[in-house]
Amino acid sequence: MSESQLAEDVRAAVEEATAGLRAPAGAAVRARARGRRRRAARGLLAIVPAAAVIAGATVALHGGGTATPAVTAGAPSATAPAPAIVTDAYVVSHVQAALRGANDFIIVTKATIGHGQATTTYEDLATRTGRSVVSIGGDKVTYWIKTTTSGGRDHWQTTYVDYTKRTWWTKNSQSGVLGKATSGDIVLSADSSPAEISKALAVGQLRVGVKGKVNGHLAIELVYAGKLAAKAGAVRYWVDATTFQPVRIDLPPFTAATTITESWIRKSAALVKETNTPRVPAGFRQVPASPAFN
Amino acid sequence: MRAKQWTAFEEFVQVHGDALVRLSFALCGDRGRAEDAAQEALTRVYLRWSRLEDPLPYARRAVVNATRDSWRRRSRQEQRERAVAGLPPQTPVRIDEMIADRDRLAKALLHLPYGQRAVIVLRFWHQLSEQETADALGNSVGTVKSQASRALGRLRHELQSDLLPVNPNLREYR
């Protein structure tokens, strides 16, 4: 293995290991609060602007000796800038803009479906290829699925690696003839493409809901409001209030097992390669493909 | 800090905050410690903000130092607590056992000495030059080169133990 290959693998491994990690909400405000406390403790308040000195001293007088009140994660402080007031149209246009850039990212989704089974999928929308890592207890499976469409059908090329049994297989399969939507309703699911979500927003079948927090970050809810909502249940997407990229999908019946977290990692050559190129460790035995898969 | 500086600092945190947490996590493998170390580093950046021409290299260096400091501090504290409780000294925690699902290369990375790991992460993940890496770590370029070489050698040794190609279309590890 060449040094450049190894370096590229390191880059991809660290990229994967740190995917989805984010700075705690309010990190800047907290840094300022801590910084001011340290300055006060060091007797260096004189170097900050006079107004800050007065403000800090006032707080110190009323706050039991600390220069600034403690700031808890995600909680706005008295001095934090007020959040911008945005309209639904603003949210829709920014979400659509973010979705248009989806091909520049690898989409990472994580789901836990109970019994300790967790699935993390890395998807390259440009190539329609996904790499999924499934963990059940100590067992681990990784599989790649590349999707192409021809003759009115989806075709799936799967490579499946079982790290517990040390086996692998490949398989080609296909869907039935793909139907065409006859009604104007869009059915949204966890697998809906950015284009479908964007279209649902454009026609008002996906509407801006409440604001909330996902993993400590301000997020905005998008609720399915199409005619099929009552029948199929209303899928809810959450988008980050800053990047407008999806961060969570809640599916009926809205339990922990039907919650999918999502993060977008900007593409690098190594990450694209890892997502798109099946890799089988040496010594693994090739076995017949599972008929149950696909 | 004046309003303009505060706005610039906020933007800096917004743009680079996630990357700093990820850098710390790559160095320690613990999410809580990574967030704490990144927060500490941001505090240090805040305190020096008006004197920093380019805050990012300083922030990286602060993260590397804060992550190492938090690790040492936590370790000493745990040992003290065990001593007070009359328990025998704890054997070092195997970090890879704390991480349920991680690529084996990332695990191998966490087995490297801290200095070598920091060089690898900054050189090959952040793609800094040798000079930039040396600046971030407060080392010489020569030290960075030698640590990178030793680290890659160790990683290569661990990876070559059992990964071999099964067909020409798959990645080669020979």
List the helices and strands and how they pair.
The complex is a heterodimer of chains A (294) and B (174).
Chain A: H1 3-17, H2 27-41, H3 50-62, H4 88-100, E1 105-112, E2 117-124, E3 129-136, E4 139-150, E5 153-162, E6 167-174, H5 194-202, E7 206-214, E8 217-224, H6 229-232, E9 236-240, E10 246-250, E11 259-266, H7 269-276, E12 285-286
Parallel strand pairs in A: 6-12
Antiparallel strand pairs in A: 1-2, 1-11, 2-3, 3-4, 4-5, 5-6, 7-8, 8-9, 9-10, 10-11
Helix pairs in contact in A: 4-5
Chain B: H1 3-28, H2 31-48, H3 55-84, H4 95-98, H5 104-110, H6 114-125, H7 130-137, H8 141-159
Report on this structure.
The complex is a heterodimer of chains A (294) and B (174). In chain A, α4 packs antiparallel against α5. In chain A, β4 (139-150) and β5 form a beta hairpin. Chain A has a domain at 88-276: outer membrane lipoprotein receptor (LolB), chain A (Clam). Chain A has 7 helices and 12 strands. Chain A has a 12-stranded mixed beta sheet, with helices on both faces. Chain A has helices at residues 3-17, 27-41, 50-62, 88-100, 194-202, 229-232, 269-276, and strands at residues 105-112, 117-124, 129-136, 139-150, 153-162, 167-174, 206-214, 217-224, 236-240, 246-250, 259-266, 285-286. Mean pLDDT of chain A is 76; it is low at 44-85. By secondary structure, chain A is α+β, with helices and mostly antiparallel strands. Chain B is mainly α and 174 residues long. Chain B has 2 domains: 1-93, Rna Polymerase Sigma Factor, Chain: A (Orthogonal Bundle), CATH 1.10.1740; 96-174, Arc Repressor Mutant, subunit A (Orthogonal Bundle), CATH 1.10.10. Helix content of chain B is 71%, strand content 0%. Chain B contains 8 helices and no strands. Chain B has helices spanning 3-28, 31-48, 55-84, 95-98, 104-110, 114-125, 130-137, 141-159. At the A-B interface, α1 and α2 of A face α1, α2, α5, α6 and α8 of B.
Instruction: Give the total of beta strands of chain B.
Output: 0
- Structural Rg of chain A: 24 Å
What is the strand arrangement across the widest sheet of chain A? 7-8-9-10-11-1-2-3-4-5-6-12
Helical fraction of chain B equals over 70%
What is the rounded distance between the termini of chain B? 55 Å
CATH topology of the largest domain in chain B: Rna Polymerase Sigma Factor, Chain: A
Largest interface: A-B, 47 and 54 residues
